[in-house]
Design a protein that fits this description.
The structure holds two protein chains of two kinds. Chain A is α+β, with helices and mostly antiparallel strands. In chain A, 31% of the residues lie in helices and 21% in strands. Chain A has helices at residues 3-24, 143-152, 155-160, 163-166, 191-203, 208-212, 216-227; strands spanning 61-69, 72-79, 82-91, 108-109, 112-117, 121-126, 130-136. In chain B, helix 2 (17-26) crosses helix 14 and helix 5 packs across helix 15. Classes of the chains: A alpha+beta, B mainly alpha.
């Protein structure tokens, strides 16, 4: 067997193995295209949190949840057997283009921009992050009824779900408040470093909560202290 | 890249045996059924407006959503496809056996084909399990939320109602007789892993069923069927469905039938794909409802 033939067969085998690994092993979920608009699912607010913000059904009406996904939740408003409207809350993080329609709107509902789409749909953009929409079904709803329904959502609680608002210092920081990837404080197993790092927080008096769940700012200070022991 | 959900909807047949069979069954269900195969018509129906620009936006968003693997819309379709393929394969075998049974030399073939009632019962319950799994994929609930599935069955309307009527008629009442639903649990009790492996749809679905091993899958299927049975009993009672009525309803569209009910069921299994036809329509509607809310 000639030398080049052996090399050729070897390379073919390697290429075959690599291709096989790529197509048959479960790497699919690592490839792009798994999520909408290629935005990581953890950066989109979970639809489970939206469910309790839907309007409370009035007498004779019934609210039936139909879809609940990452960044989306939808319910049908029914009166008897007839579907009156589709109510939904979605996180616009995965559909940035949907924000554009609100730019030129002058209408406001509880200070959030309001837009009518076609003859049966009205949308509201809350906290520049969540789109609340009512779509009339069956015999339809008029503009007034749709706007009333939009107002019946718990809009202030929805605005508070915005991750940008959660990171603001006014709200006590919890586990969910830190951006993804920074949620657990980094602890290096170096005894000298830890002793030095704990000094500045002692000097500022007892702060048990800050010690247990340090905010970004706090951690930054500690890191500085560790680098410059004299400070 | 395979087709998106709305492309699949567009490619559905407008008039063939499947559509005729469904139209026949829909005469038994109040509210009727419309063979919706145009994405644009579906979008403007959901949106309540014919604005071309809006319709196009919804369509683009729906395609984007169905291309995203994590969203599960296409996985729901692949479930329906798996069930449909196996139904056709099994139906074809049985048709062959019926034909072969008449020929003296190959008569023995007829004995080999899996057409026993137990297998029919397993086939039905795998379809119910596929329905439930597809439901969880589309609605985004965890894979074993039996109670949520039971509740949602009551909410089924339009095409899903006709689909369930078709499932009850073609896979329960015709092949197993009028008391099929009461016998189903007993029949499932006799099922072992040997029967399960005789069905091609099980091989296709096994990886999508929660739990590991045949026993776990079988118990999952049985729990799903329990939920479904509770609802199906009421459904059959409300509409007064029976094998005879199903045959008569089908005769209005596909012409007179002179054979037995079991043969009709075999014929429908082999030559129609009602389950995936209505499945595509139902998933497309959910997808459009979401896309319309997100644009």
């Amino acid at each position: 067997m000639s030398r080049s033939l052996r090399w050729g067969i070897g390379l073919l085998l390697i290429a075959g193995l690599l291709l096989g690994a790529f197509f048959f092993l479960p790497f699919r979920s690592w490839l792009p295209g798994g999520t909408v608009a290629n935005i990581a699912t953890r950066e989109v607010v979970n639809g489970t949190l939206f469910n309790r913000l839907f309007p409370k059904p009035q007498t004779g009406e019934q609210l039936v949840f139909t879809q609940e996904k990452r960044g989306f939740s939808q319910a049908r408003l029914k009166q008897g057997a007839e579907v009156r409207a589709l109510l939904s809350i979605s996180d616009v993080a995965s559909s940035p283009a949907s924000r554009n329609k609100f730019i030129h709107s002058d209408e406001r509902l509880q200070s959030w921009p309001l837009v009518d789409q076609g003859s049966q749909a009205s949308a509201l953009l809350v906290a520049d992050r969540f789109q609340v929409k009512v779509i009339g079904q069956g015999s339809g709803l008029d503009v007034q009824q749709r706007h009333e329904l939009l107002g019946a959502f718990d809009l202030s609680a929805l605005a508070a779900l915005n991750p940008a608002a959660l990171q603001a210092p006014a709200i006590p920081s919890g586990r969910g408040a830190l951006p993804p990837g920074n949620q657990a404080p980094l602890r290096l197993p170096l005894p000298g470093l830890q002793r030095q790092a704990s000094q500045p927080s002692k000097a500022r008096g007892p702060q048990p909560a800050a010690n247990r769940k340090p905010s970004l700012f706090n951690r930054f200070n500690r890191a500085n202290a560790a680098l410059e022991p004299a400070a | 890249m395979s087709a998106t959900v709305l492309e699949r909807l567009e490619r559905l047949p407008r008039r063939n045996l499947t559509v005729l069979a469904l139209r026949g069954v829909s005469t038994l269900v109040p509210g009727g059924w419309q063979n919706q195969t145009s994405p644009e018509a579906l979008i403007s129906d959901v949106l309540g407006s014919d604005d071309l620009d809006l319709v196009q936006q919804v369509r683009a968003r729906a395609d984007e959503l169905s291309r995203a693997r994590h969203e599960g819309y296409r996985r729901a379709l692949s479930l329906y496809d798996a069930v449909n393929r196996s139904q056709k394969a099994a139906g074809g075998l049985r048709v062959l056996a019926n034909v072969a049974g008449a020929l003296p030399l190959v008569k023995r073939l007829a004995v080999l084909t899996p057409a026993s009632q137990t297998l029919q019962a397993v086939d039905l319950s795998l379809k119910v399990a596929a329905e439930m799994l597809a439901f969880t994929q589309v609605n985004g609930l965890p894979g074993d939320s039996f109670a949520a599935f039971g509740d949602s069955l009551r909410e089924y309307s339009g095409e899903a109602r006709v689909r369930m009527a078709a499932l009850v008629c073609f896979d329960a009442l015709l092949p197993l007789g009028d008391n099929a639903l009461h016998r189903l649990d007993g029949l499932l009790g006799q099922v072992g892993s040997r029967e399960l492996h005789q069905l091609p749809s099980y091989a296709g679905m096994a990886s999508l069923l929660p739990g590991r091993g045949d026993a776990a899958h079988l118990s999952f299927v049985r729990r799903g069927v329990d939920q479904w049975l509770g609802w199906a009993d009421g459904f059959v009672g409300d509409l007064g469905l029976s094998g005879q009525r199903a045959v008569r309803a089908l005769e209005t569209t596909i012409g007179p039938w002179h054979g037995g009910m079991e043969q009709l069921a075999t014929f429908l299994d082999a030559f129609t794909d009602t389950y995936s036809h209505t499945g595509v329509q139902a998933v497309a509607r959910r997808l459009v409802e979401r896309a319309a809310a997100e644009i």
